Amino acid sequence: MGGAVLRTTTQVRALTPDDLPELRALLDRDRLVNLFVRNRIDATGLQTRWLGGQVWGYFEDGTLVSACHAGTNLVPVEATPAAIEAFAERVLADNIRPSSVVGLRSTVLPLWELLEPRWGPARSPRLDQPFMVIDHDSKLRPDPRVRQVVMDEFDTIYPACVAMFTEEVGVDPEVGNRSGYRARVSQLISHGWSFAIIEDGQVVFKTEVGAATPYACQLQGVYVHPDLRGRGIAGPAIAAVVEQVRRTIAPVVTLYVNDHNTAARRAYERAGFQQTTTFASILL
Question: Record keywords: Transferase included (predicted)?
Answer without folding.
Answer: yes
